[in-house]
Amino acid sequence: MSDFKKTVFPAGFLWGGATAANQCEGAFDADGKGISVADTMPRGKDRFSIIASPDFDWEIDQNKYNYPNHLGIDHYHRFKEDIALFAEMGFKAYRFSIAWSRIFPKGDEVEPNETGLSFYEQLIDECLKYGIEPVLTISHYEMPVHLAKVYSGWKNRKLIGFFKNFSRVVLNRFANKVRYWMTFNEINSAMEFPALSQGLVVSSGAQDYTNRFQAWHNQFVASALVVKIAHELRGDIQVGCMQIYAPLYAFDSNPVNQFASQLKQRAFNYFTSDVQVRGYYPSYFNQLLKEYNAKVPEIKDGDLEILKNNTVDYIGFSYYMSMAINVTNSEKSDPASGNLMQGVKNPFLESSEWGWQVDPLGLRISMNDLWDRYQVPLFIVENGLGAKDEIDDNGEINDYYRIDYLKKHIISMHDAMEDGVDLMGYTPWGCIDLVAASTGEMSKRYGFIYVDLDDYGKGSLDRIKKKSFYWYKDVIATNGAKLE
Length: 484
Ligand code: BG6
Known about the structure:
Elements lengths: L13 E5 L2 H4 L22 H5 L23 H15 L3 E5 L2 H4 L10 H16 L3 E7 L5 H7 L6 H17 L5 E5 L9 H5 L10 H25 L4 E7 L3 E3 L4 H24 L6 H7 L11 H7 L4 E5 L4 E3 L9 E2 L6 E2 L5 E2 L5 E2 L1 H15 L3 E5 L17 H20 L3 E4 L22 E3 L11 E3 L1 H11 L7
Parallel strand pairs: 1-2, 1-14, 2-3, 3-4, 4-5, 5-7, 6-8, 7-13, 13-14
Antiparallel strand pairs: 9-10, 11-12, 15-16
The chain binds 6-O-phosphono-beta-D-glucopyranose (BG6).
The site of 6-O-phosphono-beta-D-glucopyranose (BG6) has 14 residues, from loops.
């Protein structure tokens, strides 16, 4: 890692933060909003196994479980206070998502819910008031549950039309105010867990990878159609794809592990971006289908043309960790927890309290790999450390561990830029504490701003500035020159 004396990022670099509607807004059934898939996911470390069980049917069971995201951090009612705090930190950009079911409660209606649109209009205007660029994710793990239940999610081609209608409505309304967009959050996550991004569970065929590939194909076409609509609306609009990127290292120099990591790397990290950035299915596609025992998805006339003509403008990605792959002597290595993915523990890395392996240099490796492969601008739209924060006797939150994590990643991203990578911006995840996606907990915190709320929904909801708040403010004010 470089000797980091003075780092200056390019003028116009988009420093900011990121959230998602289903994890912070709360007001889950207010003002005409419909229930989303995220609203049916209970709190707890076993939430993913509950969702992955054969009986899961998208029902909310208040007697059995609790659902912290129903309240979120009440950003729906407190967004003005929150955005004022982002402005105080000097944010240049704020990434957030539009809850699909706030605009189309069931997803298959023709006419939108005006109250939902007007909420996002106010949110966008509030950002613009402070000179903060809104960066919008159209779909972040929150499709209307009706689409998952009745249509079996994205494996059904009808969703292309519903998503196109939803996107057209929000683009028509906001394109004049919003330049940066992303279609699907972490579209590749379905390789491991298709419930969130594809609305597929066991009862609708999640176990069969043919359905996942079909769902991806439908999402690719839908995303490309949205790129087309956006480009027709505004010449300088930027629409990105969005994926998890987590480098998958071979555990050792055994070629068998090297090859296994190459296969996994391309299945997890490259397949979706190969299609969305290059505009065509990669030459390894048939091999990939074989590996996952899947049939070729149904591709209609004209689909490939749509993909080819409407590629994305940039690659948005989340970066939290790396993984190691060991297929030769896996009994000698422990499994590692990860952001919707699997691998083994890397003995050279430390892990977060939730077992995510911290690897700042991996970010430089990832950025170089992505840039070398695609040569389109990158945007780090998520990064951060989920940790338990304590308020000390002076009422302060000294989250030096978070500062340390972010500092190392900023150094690494700067190094990658010096290597020649084009990076548009950096929006760390959960810039204000919010409900975790993998566990539904409040106690897994990422923010610069603490929210007084526990896992059981108790607390004043007051916002408190952490030590990292002041640190990040300096980072932005000096355009990255001051990291200490
Ligand atoms: C990403 C998601 O996978 O990771 C976010 O896009 C999520 O929605 C973030 O919150 C961190 O994961 P978690 O489980 O710690 O909230």
